[in-house]
Amino acid sequence: MDLSFDSFVLTASTADLDDEPAARAHADALEFRMDLATDPLDALDAYDGALPILATNRAEWEGGESTESERDRLDALVSAAEHDAVAAVDIELATLRTDLGGEIAERARAAGAVVVASVHDFERTPARSELVTLLRKVAHHGDVGKLAVTAHTKRDALKLLEVTERATAWGDRVATIAMGESGRHTRAVAPVYGSKIGYAPVHSADATAPGQYDLETLRSLVSGLSSKPDV
Ligand SMILES: O=C1C[C@@](O)(C(=O)O)C[C@@H](O)[C@@H]1O
């Protein structure tokens, strides 16, 4: 299965691939949080859903729950990429800058997966110049560059939207999210400025990050904002 991220992709973010039938009505793909799942590779072997998968195996040091060694965590991601249904993998920018990370990205691409290079800031929204630099770096290392920050004010959210528009205008393929209450609306609005990936749990109780809308709500908000007005 393929994911090009040329246009916006709404992922149902989940630790349970059995969510697929419920996600299908609203999502373009699943984000499979391997680090939150029990036996993720067995779950992938058994997967027969219709939605393509973006596989994430997030390390503890980047806000995830994987406590495996880096080698084991990343080998599992490559094993995931070898499944036909896995169209993309998420690899942290800090990982991609290591020799091991470079090797893993190469193996994942050889297995047919697109690489989403990611950076997360669970504390704050950096200054605009830093956001621009980070977006450049993730877009350079990945086929899509993802930046998730934490907004405390509307100005934080605005900064993120502004740099999303700029990066998209100069031709980078990026995905941006402002986590937290102040940034919540960016999940619906950032796609208008070019952001290519959205994340939402099928049920809000299963949120994988602060400020997420449930899947049906985010789909309806994004669709409402992207549809042409009746004239
Ligand atoms: O990086 C992201 C974005 C995210 O943190 C969010 O804020 O929706 C959710 C994560 O599951 C995903 O890997």
TrEMBL record:
One of its GO terms (biological process) is 3,4-dihydroxybenzoate biosynthetic process. Keywords: Amino-acid biosynthesis, Aromatic amino acid biosynthesis, Lyase, Schiff base. It comes from the Archaea. It catalyses: 3-dehydroquinate = 3-dehydroshikimate + H2O. 3-dehydroquinate binds at E31, F32, R33, R58, R187, T208, Q212. The active site is at H120 (proton donor/acceptor), K146 (schiff-base intermediate with substrate). Coiled coil: none annotated. SUPFAM superfamilies: Aldolase (SSF51569). Pathway: Metabolic intermediate biosynthesis; chorismate biosynthesis; chorismate from D-erythrose 4-phosphate and phosphoenolpyruvate: step 3/7. The keyword Zinc does not apply. The keyword DNA-binding does not apply. InterPro entries: Aldolase_TIM (IPR013785), DHquinase_I (IPR001381), Type-I_3-dehydroquinase (IPR050146). Its EC number is 4.2.1.10. GO terms for molecular function: 3-dehydroquinate dehydratase activity. Belongs to the type-I 3-dehydroquinase family. Homodimer. Involved in the third step of the chorismate pathway, which leads to the biosynthesis of aromatic amino acids. Catalyzes the cis-dehydration of 3-dehydroquinate (DHQ) and introduces the first double bond of the aromatic ring to yield 3-dehydroshikimate. This is 3-dehydroquinate dehydratase. The lineage of its organism: Archaea, Methanobacteriati, Methanobacteriota, Stenosarchaea group, Halobacteria. The gene is aroD.
